[in-house]
Amino acid sequence: MNLWSGGIVKARPKRSKAGSENKVQASVKKALDALPGVSVMRNNVGSYRSGSGHWVKYGLGLGSPDLVGWKTLEITPELVGTRVAVFVGIEVKRPASTAGPRVAAGVVTPRQRAWMSRLEAAGGIGAVVCSVLEALSALGLSDVGKVGK
Fold it and tell me: Residue 104: inside a domain, yes or no?
């Protein structure tokens, strides 16, 4: 028995980590970082109380995606050769096959939906993915053979 939320409750059953969101996220990050012109980093969001008692918030805010970064594009024809970085936001979700019986896989919160909508409206690339292939597709990079080179 564990003490949880002010009462005594049974310990939560352990879920399989084989397809956990963290593992999918690590695979997506590794694959995207291996591609030329693409760079993503983990966006942790939260807050903590500092030693002086002040609350410190970190990350891009509630609803922001798990992975953020950019994809470099070449502008043509009037600015041939000019490169621009397009902001990328990738929200990673656990595949449905690995969700526990009481956990919904792939659930996107209203705040996450709003964040992605604002990102796309501003010209960025936003996607909710459950695999490396979905992340590549979201970035228009279907050539999987380049991953890891």
Answer: yes
